[in-house]
UniProtKB/TrEMBL annotation, chain A:
Entry protein name: Extracellular solute-binding protein
An annotated GO cellular component: periplasmic space
Leader sequence segment: 1-22
Origin species: Alloyangia sp. H15
One protein family per Pfam: SBP_bac_1
Gene3D superfamilies linked: Periplasmic binding protein-like II
Transmembrane segments: none
Coiled coil: none
TrEMBL record, chain B:
Alphabetical UniProt keywords: Cell membrane, Membrane, Transmembrane, Transmembrane helix, Transport
Tagged with keyword Transmembrane helix: yes
Protein location: Cell membrane
Family: Belongs to the binding-protein-dependent transport system permease family.
Native organism: Alloyangia sp. H15
GO-annotated cellular components: plasma membrane
One Pfam family cited in the UniProt record for this chain: BPD_transp_1
PANTHER family attached to this UniProt entry: BLR7065 PROTEIN, SPERMIDINE_PUTRESCINE TRANSPORT SYSTEM PERMEASE PROTEIN
Protein name: Sugar ABC transporter permease
Cited InterPro entries: MetI-like, MetI-like_sf
SUPFAM superfamilies: MetI-like (SSF161098)
UniProtKB/TrEMBL annotation, chain C:
GO biological process annotation, one example: transmembrane transport
GO cellular component, one term: plasma membrane
PANTHER family: INNER MEMBRANE ABC TRANSPORTER PERMEASE PROTEIN YCJP, MALTOSE TRANSPORT SYSTEM PERMEASE-RELATED
Name of this protein: Carbohydrate ABC transporter permease
Major localisation: membrane
Amino acid sequence: MNTTLKAALLTATALTGTAAWAETELNALFMAQAAYSEDDIRAMTASFEEANPDVKVNLEFVPYEGLHDKTVLSMGSGGGYDVVLFDVIWPAEYAQNGVLVDVTGKITDEMKSGILPGAWTTVDYEGASYGMPWILDTKYLFFNKEMLSKAGIDTPPATWADLTAAAQKIKDAGIVEYPIAWSWAQAEAAVCDYTTLLSAFGGEFIKDGAPAFQSGGGLEALDYMAASMEAGLTNPNSKEFLEEDVRAVFQNGDAAFALNWTYMYNLANASDESSVKGKVGVVAAPGVEGVSEHSAVNGSMGLGITATSQHPDEAWNYIVHMTSQPVQNAYARLSLPIWASSYTDPEVTAGQEELIKAAGEGLAVMYPRPMTAKYQEMSMALQQGIQEALLGMATPQEALEAAAENSGL
Amino acid sequence: MFTDRLTFRAWLLMLPLVAVMVAVVGWPLVDTLRLSFTDARLVGTGGEGVGLENYARMLGSRNFRSALWATLTFSVWSVGAELVLGVLVGLLLNQRFYGRTLLRALMILPWALPTVVNATLWRLIYNPEYGALNAALTQLGLIDAYQSWLGQPGTAMTALIVADVWKNFPLVALISLAALQAVPRDIQAAAVSDGANAWRRFRHVTLPYLVGPLMVALVLRTIEAFKVFDLIWIMTRGGPANSTRSLSLLVYQEAFAFQRAGSGASLALIITLIITVLAIGYLALMRRAAGQGS
Amino acid sequence: MDHRSPLFTVFIHAAALLVALAVLAPLAWLFVMSVSSNADLSAKPLHWWPETFDLSRYRQLLSVETGAAFLAALRNSIVVAGMATLAALSVGVPAGWIASRKPQLGWTLGAVIATYMLPPVALSVPLYMILARFGLLNNVFGLALVYLSILAPFVTWLLKAGFDPIPRDLESAAAIDGARLDQLLRIVIMPLALPVVATALIFAFLLAWDEFFYALLFTSNQDAKTLSVAIADLAGGRVSDYGLIAAAGVIAALPPVAVGLLMQRALISGLTNGGVKG
């Protein structure tokens, strides 16, 4: 593999022909949460620097919660970031405010055809591409195989109703007090879980420019969340959990089910820190009978070049390296590649066949959060609504109606 | 022009401070005022005058009302608790007991702890699954099941207040102690021989010495509490359901997360106005108290 | 005064013990977390004492290979707080002294001190734009400059209150002897005022060390990011290692706590001076 990697790197450098002697420094902003670990990103970057000795990349890691604001705030400083990680929900806003460079012209046919179509939706806005997809991610349903078999459950839930029934069974059997863990803290994470359910129930966020989540599938989704909390099937602490809290609870053996991103699979199933090592199962998030077979939220992220970057060419080379198939295949334990053919490559699939199978089903039905420049505002209103319903401060209907009114749409 | 040469010199000595303050406070403040009447965005375009629209929209929003309520709740309870606890502990520290010097020294520790560290520490303590508070209360048999302290509006606010009080009551206690040590012994003794009971001694002999320093502590702590940002940012980020979102957090959200510099500026000035009114009220109180004291 | 009942004595000691526990327990727990293994910290029931002392977090944070970001933040905090403190003192000492000597200038000082009421959010948007214009975002100098808005009023207030009790006779005597103003300040006033200045210096340093909001807004990477932001990032990101967060907290708390303990007397007298005369 090392030779393929090096070959790819050499071609990348040869193609762009940046043989300048002067050292260029790039500043890149990443997140310290989910997906690739900090160590992975450092290693990927080191291999880039090895192949491009004239370029040095400074890495900066912030929590996901700070990623958007940091990017926007750095726009004022001349020496800000050259490369930034961005979430699938931001291209609209970034495009409108001129935060990212339009890179449509730099994308090759090989990239176009090789990368999964779902991944491209991460970086495209109104026909232009504002970067390269890098993390192809959605929320999966994880389960503790041992707990399920103890409760006499043979197959993982195929519908959300099945999940409720299975969780009830596990709770009744006294195997674990609160079978399901979610990330329902007042944060984007809660909106991701809600989106997964909304897509399962066939709901919509926006219809004809107006909020539409307060009725139909959107309402049923929040009803489901509130009912699961009410019934004691969901860990009540979920309302202050982020992804890492969910992982901590799940890998500590304190939950039978959890909804979380790809990265949890290998950390919970293969790491020595986990007390449920080897017992972790994963499937695509369930569907709703008669409406959907599976459900998934598009939680992908891309790498883009900021409009203030002084070195857009070197920044692009770096992005090409980070998103190249050899690099992605080499670090496929915490985040799955964006390249279609990787999913049949034994190097990627070995040891995580279950995850690859779940990804095949989940990634195909990834549901987008709305593409609007006012996304941050809408999301904030929705987070409040979700929490109000979970806390019993309002009925799901009231909470969502207030959120719709408050959404700025 | 300068009749008194020293006045010129005096101004010369004052000048650096004034210049610095104009640069880092005056100028930005005037600019905030200007921005508050525009629809300027943080990055990019915008900046057309919109009159009082920002103010009207901010004052009328339900976000403002909930943030004002959260800020008031936080300020009143934490400052109140800090004062009461501070004075009580100050009185305690003025008594003679074994280890008094040590305890007086310990009091400086919470105060010296950086706010960010304090907030992080308490967040870990309140952790619903692995936090020390749940573990301690359960092992003592005080609660049956682990609680989501930062996940419910009521307990989340209380949790924030406890963290703030723990850090700040020692300072009030130390200030009280210093003031108490200024109370002349013979007056105390005279009051005792007059047969005054403990409460009357405290009210008429001790309290007058405490009022001045305590008023200052009260003003400083109220202003700080009203500006609160870092503690909440780290412990709850305004959640759950925005029940702990303070006014400062709301400005951050408006101006930096939503990038609406104009309405963010108007909201910031509304907060400034509220604090100013509070401070003037306190100053008036202080004058009256000082008049009575002397 | 030695006529306390035994019951009262017991009560006082019990109360003192309670206060000591309340103050120490959270701090002790911070330290214990920083040396406990993850298994101990996520055990139910919780292990209050680690089975083995695990110092790996401190090594991780303080070694050049693994703790580069943390060390950079530590350095930035020292640099920013140091520069801001010196700058605040160099404008605050002359202003505080003259305000103490010339009461008719009091209103200027009053106006400066009044700015302490301003919430940082009221200045943050223009400060952001101003710093951006001068290329001072994500820059230690820019951040130190902004910190002056907090430190300068506070320090001047403390200094003026501290200068007030220093007798004027000395100054007039020296002035009659023909000393110039700078000589006057250097030879006569400063030796007497040194304790006051030292107190102000410590307060300023602690305030700057503690600051979070401006640092969060105006820094973006290792060039200027301070310790408080680094800790907030640590606590907000992959937080599975509570011990690491605790260790970072212990390191960040050490300098101010050490200074606080050593200089306790000066700090309190500084505050109460300002308080009584305020």
